[in-house]
């Protein structure tokens, strides 16, 4: 069927293999009838017998063709067929409001993985605006074998010529646990796992913004990334893992974690930011040198550089520690903190230096995260999300198909500019079933213990905490 027909019968929407099977059965019945009740009670021999054999062989051939068609009726074709019935058969409500004689929109379905399909509907007859509102309808059309599938992402082509729907099995549990820190060692030092089958690829993404209310799993999620980075070890090219805990909470008692000074000032924090920036510039110089030698742009991961991370826990609280104005002869003030951070976020990725900021409130600008930083951070994670918070982090169009539900610690919405996770998707960070803080402290000690030849020397600002778990 190429045009809409409100009087079309259900059989017209049957799958090709079903149509073929029905014709095969019809031929078979005719053949049996001829055999049992020959016309005019003629004896079944001669021409009649030959005719009957032909009819029977057509029936068998059609049956075999129908079996073949069924075998090659892939999952993508089944979904396409289901969507076509849901959209074009009048008994299902005609959601596209088509009129008799109008051309039917072209539908394509591509299988992306066992649990993911990409449905494209071309906006030729129906405009893209109507197709954009079709997410829920498409999800409910999917039934029987595909009832666990729903639209999770909806994208409209810039020229508004088609709308794409990502269909995913939303019941699959991708969460998993690590029972020991050794299981967390990444296969490559640029790819860090966030859940079964999903990871952050540092070769294609930049700094990371992590938001979520208290007890939502932010710190645990970030620690899982830091542990993977620590397990890669330190390179001899100024790599650093700097953790800043301005709240003087659990993290602050770990070795090499920077926290507020004894007089509740943040001079050590500013100093550690400056050192991180200095290391970043040294790494960039190494890369520039190599680029000059090679005569082409080079990437940090091609020269065995390991990623550097600067993690600022509770970024908003951290900012509040700084005085607005610096005293004479000093640069200790909020502007120095903000500017250093902006430079690291915007320039760091090319030298393998990334910032992780955690914020409890997803608010931006006044009292929250500057819009410039929010936009520069290319991986965004919102723990225990709500649509209201999500809209402050992502374009609200990207969240159109996200039903709000009850989330538990570790559940989040996640996006990254790595070409695979550009659209916001649900994610559950790994559960670490071992004494996380003890292991983090041990790994930090080991990491900086390796610095003897070539790394950045230990700074005075970094607190050498010794409390052990
Ligand atoms: N991925 C996860 N799976 C299961 N439970 C988790 C996960 N992540 C965190 N939790 C649990 O949730 C609780 C809160 O986690 P966490 O301290 O990381 O949250 P937070 O958002 O950083 O809170 P706060 O702002 O108070 O520090 C922890 O007790 C932890 O056991």
Automatic annotation (TrEMBL):
GO terms for molecular function: ATP binding; DNA binding. The keyword Hydrolase does not apply. The chain crosses the membrane at residues 20-38, 54-73. Keywords: ATP-binding, Membrane, Nucleotide-binding, Transmembrane, Transmembrane helix. The keyword Nucleus does not apply. Signal peptide: none annotated. SUPFAM superfamilies: P-loop containing nucleoside triphosphate hydrolases. This is FtsK domain-containing protein. It comes from Ruminococcus difficilis. The lineage of its organism: Bacteria, Bacillati, Bacillota, Clostridia, Eubacteriales.
């Amino acid at each position: 069927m190429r045009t809409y027909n409100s009087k079309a019968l259900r059989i017209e929407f049957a799958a090709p293999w079903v149509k073929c099977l029905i014709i095969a059965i019809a031929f078979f019945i005719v053949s049996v009838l001829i055999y049992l009740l020959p016309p005019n009670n003629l004896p079944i021999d001669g021409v009649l017998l030959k005719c009957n054999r032909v009819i029977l062989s057509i029936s068998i051939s059609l049956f075999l063709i129908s079996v073949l068609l069924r075998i090659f009726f892939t999952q993508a074709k089944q979904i396409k067929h289901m969507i076509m019935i849901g959209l074009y058969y009048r008994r299902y409500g005609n959601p596209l409001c088509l009129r008799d004689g109008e051309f039917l929109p072209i539908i394509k379905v591509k299988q992306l993985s066992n649990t993911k399909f990409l449905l494209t509907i071309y906006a030729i007859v129906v405009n893209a605006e109507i197709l954009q509102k079709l997410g829920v309808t498409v999800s409910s059309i999917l039934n029987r074998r595909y009832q666990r599938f729903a639209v999770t992402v909806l994208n409209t082509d810039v020229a508004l010529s088609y709308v794409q729907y990502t269909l995913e099995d939303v019941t699959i549990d991708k969460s998993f646990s690590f029972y020991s820190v050794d299981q967390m060692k990444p296969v490559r030092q640029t790819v860090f796992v966030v859940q079964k089958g999903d990871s952050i690829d540092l070769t294609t993404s930049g700094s990371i913004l992590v938001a979520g209310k208290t007890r939502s799993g932010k710190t645990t999620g970030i620690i899982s990334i830091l542990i993977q980075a620590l397990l890669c070890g330190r390179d001899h090219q100024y790599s650093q893992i700097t953790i800043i805990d301005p709240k003087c909470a659990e993290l602050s008692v770990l070795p090499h974690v920077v926290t507020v000074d004894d007089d509740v000032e943040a001079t050590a924090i500013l100093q550690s930011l400056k050192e991180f920036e200095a290391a970043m510039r040294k790494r960039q110089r190494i890369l520039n040198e190599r680029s000059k030698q090679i005569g082409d742009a080079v990437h940090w991961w091609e020269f065995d550089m390991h990623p550097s991370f600067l993690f600022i826990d509770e970024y908003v609280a951290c900012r509040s520690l700084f005085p607005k104005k610096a005293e004479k002869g000093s640069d200790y003030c909020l502007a120095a903190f903000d500017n250093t951070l902006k430079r690291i976020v915007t320039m760091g990725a090319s030298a393998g230096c990334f910032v992780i900021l955690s914020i409890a409130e997803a608010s931006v600008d006044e009292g929250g995260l500057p819009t410039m930083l929010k936009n520069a951070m290319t991986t965004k994670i919102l723990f225990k999300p709500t649509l209201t918070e999500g809209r402050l982090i992502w374009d609200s169009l990207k969240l159109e198909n996200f039903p709000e539900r009850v989330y538990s610690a570790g559940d989040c919405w996640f996006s990254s500019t790595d070409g695979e996770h550009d659209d916001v998707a649900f994610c559950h960070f790994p559960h670490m079933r071992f004494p996380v803080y003890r292991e983090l402290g041990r790994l930090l000690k080991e990491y900086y213990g390796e610095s003897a030849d070539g790394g950045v020397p230990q700074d005075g600002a970094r607190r050498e905490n010794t409390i052990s778990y």
